[in-house]
TrEMBL record:
<feature type="domain" description="Glycosyl-hydrolase 97 catalytic">
    <location>
        <begin position="351"/>
        <end position="507"/>
    </location>
</feature>
<dbReference type="InterPro" id="IPR017853">
    <property type="entry name" value="GH"/>
</dbReference>
<dbReference type="InterPro" id="IPR014718">
    <property type="entry name" value="GH-type_carb-bd"/>
</dbReference>
<dbReference type="InterPro" id="IPR052720">
    <property type="entry name" value="Glycosyl_hydrolase_97"/>
</dbReference>
<protein>
    <submittedName>
        <fullName>Glycoside hydrolase family 97 protein</fullName>
    </submittedName>
</protein>
<dbReference type="GO" id="GO:0016787">
    <property type="term" value="F:hydrolase activity"/>
</dbReference>
<feature type="signal peptide">
    <location>
        <begin position="1"/>
        <end position="34"/>
    </location>
</feature>
<dbReference type="InterPro" id="IPR013780">
    <property type="entry name" value="Glyco_hydro_b"/>
</dbReference>
<dbReference type="Pfam" id="PF10566">
    <property type="entry name" value="Glyco_hydro_97"/>
</dbReference>
<keyword id="KW-0732">Signal</keyword>
<dbReference type="InterPro" id="IPR019563">
    <property type="entry name" value="GH97_catalytic"/>
</dbReference>
<dbReference type="InterPro" id="IPR013785">
    <property type="entry name" value="Aldolase_TIM"/>
</dbReference>
<keyword id="KW-0326">Glycosidase</keyword>
<dbReference type="InterPro" id="IPR029483">
    <property type="entry name" value="GH97_C"/>
</dbReference>
<feature type="domain" description="Glycosyl-hydrolase 97 N-terminal">
    <location>
        <begin position="64"/>
        <end position="331"/>
    </location>
</feature>
<keyword id="KW-0378">Hydrolase</keyword>
<dbReference type="InterPro" id="IPR029486">
    <property type="entry name" value="GH97_N"/>
</dbReference>
Amino acid sequence: MRGQRWRVLSSRPVRALLVISVLAVSAAPPSAVAVGSAADGAGVPSSPSACAPLSQPVTTAGGDVAATVLPGADGGASWSVTFRGSPVVQPSALGLVRADADFTRGLQLCGVSAPRRVAETYTLTQSKISTVDEPALERDLTFRGAGGERMVVTVRVFDDGAALRYAFPDIAPDRQVEITREATEFAVPKGGDSLQVTNKSTPLAPKNQEWYLDRGADEKRLLNPMGTSNADGWSFPLTLRTSVADRPWWVHIGEADLHGNYPATHVRGSVPVIDGAARYGIEFPKDDEARGAYGTGNPQARGPWTSPWRFVVASPDLQDVAATTATTDLARDAAPRDWSWVDPGAASFSWMNSPSSLATLDSFIPWIDLSARMGWKYALADARWDQMTDSNGTVVGVERIVEEARKRGVGLWVWVNSGGPNNANPGTPRDIIVDRTERRAYFERLHAAGVKGVKVDIWESNKQDLLAQQRAVLEDAADFKLMVTLHNTTVSRGWEREYPHLLGVEGGIGGTYENSTSAHSDRMPEHNTILAFNRMVSGPFDYSPAVLNTDLSPTTPRRSTAAHQLALPVIMHSGLTTYGGKPEAYLGQPAPVRELLRTLPTAWDEVKFLGGAPGDSVVMARRAGATWYVAGLNGKTVSTSTFERPDLDTGYTAPVGVARTLTADLAALGCGPGAAVTLFSEADGAEAHNTITVTNPPLSPDRTLSVDTAQFGGFVATVDGCRAS
């Protein structure tokens, strides 16, 4: 578990726990350096004349991580981060530019606080780990800009990374200022066989739904090297592979704690390589996002103001980076209220296989019945459910649908369009949650009817005001005990800690892409192995996994095997797991497969990555209680057709993968020779694609589980009798 090294040391005195360098500032007298909490103004000189330019580094170090603020260009400041002594982030710009002041140059350092310990101890109801204990160390550096106002830079170091954020404590409550540019950069040395794992930002409707790889033959199907640019920018999170002093490193960069006063940013499209380092910067949304509604793309700061965190995590081992909890460590705690009503679970999802199932109650009931027979807690009524009619053509209303579900022991979730002016999607219900009074009245009606949760869709903008509206939706939903998922929006940035009823966020290409006239299914097996090491690091992903029927798409069959699909609910965790295949595809499975789908957890206690690489494969283990669930995906793709439409393009060819053996080291899970393994894998020969076999293989003497997988195959194993970490 993350933070283990810190916990071992925590019984010692604080001065033995963390190594703090002595700060130094120019040649000014000692009175120029004030020690205190600069964020709240303590210890800050009363006169700007006591300040001085930053001339020597200020380092905050703990464990294997050290973050240093040092002099930058034009009298500004920069920062760098070392991991185990390796300069994984070289000196990189920091600071903000406001419309009324520039805090990237001509800065005066006025105070540096004493380092303070931060104990991030919290629980998660719907994530990859249930209990987090992450000690950290942080301090504030207070600068004054040329106009005399203060900018506070807070630097934090923790077990596997470092973070920084900004504050403007001098903005009056009735004053608003615009931030026109953020200078923060991450200058990561480009070494060895470097990789840049992220997808392109979509400038007008950002929702993290772009492919990581292009179509083509194997030699073209390579993830970009570090330093690759594009016109529209790249999406957070950003995962990098590099080498520093001939030592391999994996680096993960992201942002956390968006709290309504800043947009969700993306990585700058231009990635220059200077002095051997790829310099990744930050850009704001475009003004014409959200169809030009919801204000400017630039942040607007009103009153004393604090930015979100920017963080970097690094390790020589990709598995450590993939398992980090940095995004939630840097987020806010949940409000002290009763959250006992939050109940993660699985749901049937009829729209994915049959959008017309929402037209009538009779056509929707088979999916309610599916949830009842599979033991899933919920059924999701997606777009246009509010137009659902009975056999007489009369709109039935939410109360009737809830009652039909309740009679079968199933709870109901309903879909809601976020529009508003931000989208033109005609799906209903819409234009009902923009105004707060209308929204609360609507949520009150849903709660009174017995609805359990809402899927709020079609956000498609990273603007500050629209993110503030998402938070308002979450606040109001909590008041009426409605759980929430957010779709067609940016990736999670730690909100699942602050809002335990936020069970999942889309923010990526998921299972619904299997149902398309374009040959998206050709790309999904490979894509899934990349998601595990990039998108899934950020938080719960409402992916809609485990499509067991092959005919979801009208033009392209499902390319991954049934065993690959069965592994996806373990790999792509979400507090609401929505199963979108045909009822008969689930009900026709052997009893052990149905039982696995019935009991598969949607909230986890622990996660371990056991192997793989983006675009190739992944083997992951998640623990719930005393049981480990080990899942593997074989995504290796030799070629995909350059044509998108099998029904229209005569040159289309099916994708080609590679059969191979995936291995899992069960000793890493604390499993002894007597551990009980139940393996769900592909059948042999011609039956491999659609048939799941269930076996109880003995463990090898070294406790390695080896599974032969077919082209685009996979497996799941449940393992009991192991020791929890």
